[in-house]
Amino acid sequence: MFNFDVIVIGSGIGGLTAGSLLARYGKRVVVCESHTIAGGAAHSFRRHGFEFDSGPSFYCGLTGANSLNPVKQVLDILGESLDAVRYDPLGHYHFPENSIPIYSDHSLYLQSVSKVTPQGAIELKHFIDRMLPLYEAMKGIPTIALRTDWQMIPILLKNYLPSLLKMLPNLLTVQSSVGNVMDATVKDPWVRRLIDLECFLLSGLKAHGTIAPEVAFMLGERERAGVEYPVGGSGAIIGALVRGLERWGGTLRLGCHVEQILVESGKAVGVKLKNNEIIQAPIVISNATVWDTYTKLLSADDLPASYRQTALQTPAVESFMHLHLGIKASGLENLTGHHVVLHDSKLDITVPGNTCMISIPSVWDASLAPIEHHVVHAYTLEPYAGWERNEGYEAKKVVKAQTLYRALERVIPNIRERIVLELIGTPLTHAHYLRRYQGTYGPAIEATKGMFSGANTPIKGLYRVGDSTMPGIGVPAVAASGILCANTLVTPQKTMELLTTSKI
Ligand SMILES: Cc1cc2nc3c(=O)[nH]c(=O)nc-3n(C[C@H](O)[C@H](O)[C@H](O)COP(=O)(O)OP(=O)(O)OC[C@H]3O[C@@H](n4cnc5c(N)ncnc54)[C@H](O)[C@@H]3O)c2cc1C
User: Fold this and answer.
1) Whose CA is nearest to atom 49 of ligand 1?
2) Is residue 88 domain-resident?
3) How far is the centre of ligand 1, averaged over its atoms, from the C-alpha of 395 (Å)?
């Protein structure tokens, strides 16, 4: 009596990877997206000829054979692909006292750091050397083969024993925070701040809060696979996943807000939409955050009270201020695409407004802006609390955007004179367009203090994917969460058959 085998709530990268992979496995899948544009945090939007990324712009391994990026692995399985532009340095980091280019190539990275601190560069090399064996062990086990239940164990033993053995000497590093590795290898305060900053950009937390495998993977992958920008912007990744979903018979419904997950006798049976339509399926996968899933989509009595309470107590990273600009490009021929600006060394890098991220993707893909213009996205952390759409809202927006303008002035001194389009986004904008609890970046689960939960929930047939599940925040991580969930819903034999037919 079910219309579908699987309903996915949300078309973030977590929802789209789970949905498209399940469609590839032959399931009847519908993805219900509340927004009129797919992609969640990774959606693109167009205004007056400028194509803006709403969120991510740092990517590794989107193209190229044997990529370890789970997005690429899913696209390979779906028979889809992307065009991308490779670049290095991956960005320029601007500190109050100096600016340096950061390279994905480790020897160039170390050369760059040694110009600021020769001893620090030696220590950074020790840090990288401690991290890379973990990456070497992890890279032999493709995410696309993984699942989250006990059936994982025989798969690992049968197919990936050499990589498991390589993992053994790294077991201590696997479980530790980046901070522990940094404490053992780096004393130089400049390099310690650099490592904290790299971690913060990745996980929203500094080195002691970030798990070592995450940074090991980033360091290894960005050198091996290279840093790339997708032609067409982040929306091109979403477009490829949606094409893959539809190619294998899945359906994407936009402007389709799910109001409630329907639960009968402790089992998910479907969803009720905002327009009261009911869609039925024995499997429901929520790509909404943990807080939104357990408060807005389920009734309190659908879940065991203590489980619900613990889940809702998960701490959240702050939200963001965003500045999306269209600017005149004349005279900016040597402009590079990624910049991180730290305003004040005396303030912690995590203090809202102190660290600003800048992306100018039209330097890699000119089609994102009208001729002789660039498209700019700058953002910084900003707490959700205190924001209200009242009479002071517009003025507060302008004041709060100044930290982003000051950051941009480090890169393009006369930026204000160049503006042809200005869009300022606040935590309310972020929460509204991304349908995310308090516009959060995601859970602030510190390494060694807690773990992201898996795809399963106490409700039979209800699963979760996305950045409030394992392995965490970031495009590769949420794609991995979608893979883990989809594979767990089919037999290991089906997964192996699919990998064999797809030659992966
Ligand atoms: C500013 C910013 C910059 C970033 N930069 C990078 C980067 O450079 N590199 C990187 O790897 N990562 C980056 N990230 C992180 C990365 O973008 C996210 O972790 C990831 O995209 C989140 O994906 P997700 O699948 O968890 O869910 P989301 O993207 O949050 O998608 C969830 C979807 O569910 C929908 N939804 C929610 N509730 C409902 C409902 N009731 N009914 C229907 N639909 C619903 C939402 O509309 C949304 O589309 C960045 C994030 C931000 C915000």
Assistant:
1) 40
2) no
3) 28
- What's the confidence (pLDDT) of residue 250? 98
Find the 235 Cα to ligand 1 centroid distance in Å. Answer: 12
94 is a domain residue: no
11 and 76 in a single domain? The answer is: yes
Are 208 and 122 found together in one domain? yes
| pLDDT, tens only, 455-500 | 999 999 999 999 999 999 999 999 999 999 999 999 999 999 998 8
Give the model confidence (pLDDT) of 167-223 as tens digits: 888 888 887 899 999 999 999 999 999 999 999 999 889 999 999 999 999 999 999
Q: Cβ atoms within 10 A of the Cβ of 449, count?
A: 11
Q: How many CB atoms lie within 10 A of CB 330?
A: 9
pLDDT for residue 155? 86
Nearest to 185 by CA among 165, 215, 225: 215
Cis peptide before 476, with omega less than 30 degrees from 0? no
Same domain, 310 and 452: yes
Residues lining ligand 1, CB < 6 A? 9-15, 32-35, 40-42, 55-58, 257-258, 287-288, 292, 297, 320, 379, 434-436, 441-442, 466-467, 473-475, 478
Residue 112, domain member (yes or no):
yes
Residue 310's domain spans which residues? 6-42+59-83+230-314+445-502
Number of domains into which the chain is organized:
3
Helix residue spans in 313-390 (DSSP H): none
